[in-house]
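Database export, one record per block. Field names are fixed; values are copied verbatim from the stored entry.
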Amino acid sequence: MIKTGKSLALTALTALTALTALTALTALMLTGAASAMAEVPASCQTVRFTDPGWTDINSTNALTAEVLQGLGYKTKITTLAVPIGFEALNNGEIDIFLGNWMPAQQKFIDKYVTEGNVEQVRTNLEGAKFTLAVPEYAYNAGVKDFADLAKFADEFDSNIYGIEPGAPANQLLQNMVDSNDFGLGDWTVVESGEQGVVAQVKRMVRRDKYIVFLGWEPHPMNTTFKMKYLSGGDKYFGPNYGGATIHTLTRDGYSNQCKNVGKLLDNLEFSLTMENTVMGYIMDDGMKPADAARKYLQANPQVMDAWLEGVTTVKGKEGKGAVYQYLEL
């Protein structure tokens, strides 16, 4: 049978329509598949942090959590002493630790990172300090080095004020005492939480009494008190007055499993000014960490530009706009 021109045209039109429909359906399916791939897996939509109870980590956890919440994540911050926090990372019960102070926590890195159950992501803060400090008037009187402490034992009541029990820094100090380094063999390491040691320094400074304590920056103590860091503690705290770097850690495989949060962590970097400011809101103004972080980010939104590069919402949408909307910017 010979088809007429009209029949041939109709057949061609029908075929073209079918092809167009198939192409549209394929495109729709591909779009849906891409959208599904872009959406964050449900197992990654709650992000779990450990916090040793230090105000600097209160601050960095809160800053990061605010951004994550703006992206649609849920966040959970659990207060755990440093050794317990490392064990929780090791067991996969915690996802992120933003407070790996190095070299003070080297022994934990040697253990857990070497075992392969904890991953070091990046340095998130440089220029930190962490060593023994004294009020400026004690420094001016001659207490400028670890080796000077023993000469003023009576003025210090042979006490060194550390931080919370179990902290690696306290163990370093106890090792120093046990080894009778600097003639401090009969001294006592007084363990106290961050708030406790700051309160003790405040009491002693009001009375012009001597006190030697673990000091660190970032922390509002650096502007609240006229204080000086002691030299000579390189063996225990490293050079440059305990010059430290702070690292981001995750449980093993986390950045690969939760790639979007992993990208944020790759980007995440803080500064001394940023952390001192947020910590001041918390310690001096009595703000909750979340409120302090929100206040800082609203006043300094530009810090998030680098953090959010290549980061999306949990639904796979553009991240920066969502966070700005969440922060009412």
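Remark 1: The chain is about 50% helix and 20% strand.
Remark 2: The first strand starts at residue 46 and ends at 51.
End of record.
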